[in-house]
Amino acid sequence: MEQKWTKSYFDEIYLHKDPWYFFSSDYEQEKYLRQIRFIKEHLRMPPNEILELGCAEGAHTLLLANKFPDAHVTGIDISTRAIKKARSNLRSYPQVNLIEADIADSFKMIKTRKFDLIIFSETVYYMGATLSVCQLFSFFTKLVKLLTKRGILCLANIIEQKHSEETILNMRPVMECYYTLLSSLAVPVHRSTYWETKKESNAIYEYQIWLFRKMN
Predict the structure, then answer these.
(1) Alpha-carbon distance 113 to 135, whole Å?
(2) Which residues, including other chains, have CB under 8 Å from residue 180's CB and lie 6 or more apart?
(3) Which of 9, 124, 158, 186 would give a disulfide with 212, using CB separation of 3.0 to 4.6 Å?
(4) pTM of the entire predicted model
């Protein structure tokens, strides 16, 4: 049986249009707007360079490009189909560069760059399912090093998603482990929790938004 959470797994998901309703869901759009509101509160000035890990079809990327029009945005996703759709959705935004790559292996493509803002939302659980704790900590260490001195790392993650094959990936103790690892490498500056209904599934979900600033 093929291992889940691989490139082929995500390519199959993206056979469907907007499979997670990132473009069409009020729930998702409100979550994106909350992230940006908190980012603006904690960034000391508008970002010049933005990195989005797990950009999918570009729903949040599009919002970032509109909210920060003077910034250069780099989006990375493992799925060939997702990146192809994202390029179509963002074809009118020359300041956006989209890269097809496994996030865990993508540093060699951007290792000489620094970012004022890194978005790493709804992605960490899949990496946690395929990497050891030591490998994940090494990834987090490299990720934080990509931040500029004033840079912000932002994550939004579902907590204990019910009745899903992904439930095991985002159990509360697991998510707390990720938060602890990141807190050892960067300064936590924001943490908020929301319980909201996603009309597409008629279910209530809990998610948290985390922001970290690079240690001086």
Answers:
(1) 22
(2) none
(3) 186
(4) 0.96
pLDDT of 215: 85
Q: Which domains does the chain have, with CATH numbers?
A: 7-214 (3.40.50.150)
- For the segment 101-107, the average pLDDT, to the nearest whole number, is 90
Residue at token pair 């990834």: 139
Query: What is the rounded distance in angstroms from the CA atom of residue 29 to the CA atom of residue 24?
Result: 8
Q: According to the model, what pLDDT value does residue 3 have?
A: 64
**Residue 2 pLDDT > 70:** no
Name the region of 163 (left: φ>0; alpha: ψ -120 to 50; beta: rest). Answer: left
Which two tokens mark 45?
Answer: 């000035």
13-61 pLDDT, tens per residue? Answer: 999 999 999 999 999 999 999 999 999 999 989 999 999 999 999 999 9
Alpha-carbon distance 102 to 107, whole Å? 10
The residues, ordered by sequence, that sit 6+ positions from 26 with a Cβ below 8 Å of its Cβ are 199
Residue 132, classed as helix, strand or coil, is coil
User: Cα separation of 86 and 94, whole Å?
Assistant: 13
Tell me which residue has tokens 């992904």.
166
CB contact set of 98 (below 8 Å; sequence gap of 6+): 55, 58, 61, 74, 75, 76, 77, 83, 86, 87, 90
Residue 21 to residue 200: CA distance in whole angstroms: 8
Structure tokens at 197: 């209904």
